[in-house]
Structures are given as structure tokens and as C-alpha cells.
Amino acid sequence: MGKVINGVVIDDDLFHEYHKFQKGEGFDQKKIRQLLHYYKKSIVSNIKQYEDNDVELPVNLKSQMAHSGLRRQSLEELAENCTLYKIILSSTKDTFPYVNIMDDKQRLENNYSASFDMAEPRELAIKHLKSICLHAKKVVLYDRYFSSKERNVDLIKKILPQKNLEIICNDINDKHIESMKQYCGQWNFTKNPQMTNRHDRYLIVDDKLEIILTSGFDHLNDTSGDFTYIVRYVEAPRF
User: Fold this and answer.
1) For strand 209-213 and strand 201-205, is the pairing parallel, antiparallel, or unpaired?
2) CA–CA distance from 95 to each of 7, 19, 91 (Å)?
3) Fewer CB within 10 Å: C terminus or N terminus of the chain?
């Protein structure tokens, strides 16, 4: 097995469209839009895919591929043995390792995320979430350990805008809700008792953007542990 590459394999249909796009020829805009959404650092191909699809292969690139062992593998072998992500982006197939990028219900997504190790400052994350919430009309806060740390209340005061805002929650105690109401009298809290039994923690904005806080609001506000947040567009709210 040769070098493992930071990139993804694409099926023959997308391969054709990608090269038409590169040459400025007529191409399927929706397929290219979706391909660019899922695109990683590089597209991993081999000599066989170029030949099978009658796409011109420059001599220097062919030589590089041959030297790297990217010769005549099937797409499945190419993804498994030569890429980090082990998937094949497809316009039609959805059986692993194929990922159908044209399917709106595709479970494997390409989202924004940021990870912080212990002792790393979290200012970027706080500024990002504050900006996301700036024009919100409604937010959902879910973290069953929220009220275990007083500093989480101060964190919410940093993130949420001081304006008329509907806030849905469950596991925030009345004392902390009252403290936040005193900070901004335009914040309207509603408790939803059906929001329960979730391990992950969430900040959901206008039922459109879901921010998953892997170790909770506490570690967004405290550098003693590691922390990751994921921002994903959602068609419908989780709660």
C-alpha cells in the first residue's frame, strides 16, 4: 500500500463533471455545487479512472500517479487503501463506501467544527457563537449539567444578544433563569420538559443551525478539559 492521501475518491459520473468544470465546459451545476460542498483537500484518482473515462491525463501527472502506486485499483480499493476518509463521493450510490452527495437525507455531512485541547483559549468559539446568535429570534439551550456551574450563566450572557429572544430550555434551574432575566428583561424563557435523556449538549438557533457542544457549555467556558463544537444546518429541529 502506498501513501495515504488527505482527500476523497469520486465516482465516474462526478469525475466527468469535475473535469468539465475545470475546463470551463458545460457542466451540471447542482452536482458541482454538491461536490464542492463535500470536497476535501484533494480528489484522489488513478491512471485507470482517467483511461476508463477518456479524460486526458497529462504525462507528468501520469508519472506521479505511477510513482505513487495510483495505477489500476478499483474505486473501492483506491478509497480503502489510499485515502484518509475511506469514502467515494457519488451522484447515485449510497451503499458504503459510496456517499450520495445528491441525497438531501445523506447522514454523512460536511460541517464546520473547531477543536480545542486542554489549556487552549476558547475566544474564537465564543466569538463565533455570539455572531451566530446575533440576529436570532429563538434559541434552544440543552445541557443537563448547565446549572452545575455558575459560570455557565455568565457564558450565556456573553453569547446571546440583549434583545427580544425566545429561549427554550429544560435543565436550567429557576435561580439561574432569574439571573439571566435580570441581565436582559427581553429574554423570554420557556421550559420544555420533553427535552431530556440526551448525552450531547446543544445550542440551536432559529431551528436552522444546530451547534453541538461535545463536552458542554462548561468546557466552552473552562480550559481545564478539551472541547469541540460542530455547526450544522438542519431542516427540522431536534427538539
Assistant:
1) antiparallel
2) 19, 25, 12
3) N
Beta bridge partners of 232: 210
pLDDT tens-digit map of 182-209 = 999 999 999 998 888 888 999 999 999 9
User: Distance of CA 228 to CAs 115, 219, 238, Å?
Assistant: 4, 9, 19
Contact predicate 170/195, CB 8 Å: yes
Spatial CB neighbours of 13, under 8 Å, sequence gap ≥ 6: 31, 90, 91, 92
**Collapsed DSSP state (helix, strand, coil) of residue 147:** helix
Pairing of strands 138-142, 165-169: parallel
User: Coil, strand or helix: which one is 155?
Assistant: helix
